[in-house]
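Figure 3 (text version): structure tokens given as input.
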């Protein structure tokens, strides 16, 4: 019998709470099927293996390229993605130290959003665009394929933007830019800033 080392994290909102920016149908498929599949796959892969007992972040950092690394990365990336969402209208913006870091790294909050949008919209294929922080406290934007994660590059992931088609196709078809524009209305900046270590 497979041990369940990792579980699907609970959402802080109901499936219908993010509409119309993200529909109940999209959340049902994205969270309830795609994300769950990554969690189930990871449990099967680590059960009885040399990776059993490692935390999710340890797996992401240490597992070599392959199924374990791919599924661990997807579980962590999706956890970051769904945790940072909240129902709209959400007019809040970053404040305090986090806003200072944003302005220091990008000039302004608006400039950061513009650069994140550009990186996510132009990323070819399936993957993620991240806002991450280096050891010096500088914020960086990077787009990574498949289940890759900033932890593998000694960066702390603060914000994760899913640019796999299953994240937006039911609501936006091929209009990734519209998805990205509406996603900002759902971001809980308190959660994002809380990831700074």
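Below: residues designed for each position.
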């Amino acid at each position: 019998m497979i041990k369940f080392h990792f579980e699907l994290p609970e959402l802080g909102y109901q499936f219908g709470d993010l509409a119309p920016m993200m529909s109940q149908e999209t959340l049902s498929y994205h969270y309830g099927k795609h994300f769950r599949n990554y969690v189930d796959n990871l449990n099967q892969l680590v059960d009885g293996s040399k990776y059993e007992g490692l935390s999710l972040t340890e797996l992401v950092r240490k597992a070599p390229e392959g199924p374990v690394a791919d599924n661990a990365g997807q579980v962590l990336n999706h956890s970051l993605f769904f945790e940072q969402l909240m129902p709209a209208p959400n007019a809040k913006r970053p404040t305090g130290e986090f806003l200072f870091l944003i302005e220091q790294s990008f000039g302004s909050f608006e400039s950061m959003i513009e650069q994140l949008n550009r990186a996510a919209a132009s990323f070819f294929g399936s993957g993620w665009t991240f806002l991450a922080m280096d050891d010096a406290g500088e914020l960086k934007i990077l787009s990574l394929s498949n289940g890759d994660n900033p932890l593998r590059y000694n960066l702390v992931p603060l914000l994760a933007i899913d640019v796999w088609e299953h994240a937006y196709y039911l609501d936006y078809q091929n209009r990734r830019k519209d998805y990205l524009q509406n996603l900002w209305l759902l971001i809980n900046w308190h959660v994002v800033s809380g990831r700074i270590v």
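The chain has two domains: 23-83, 96-193.
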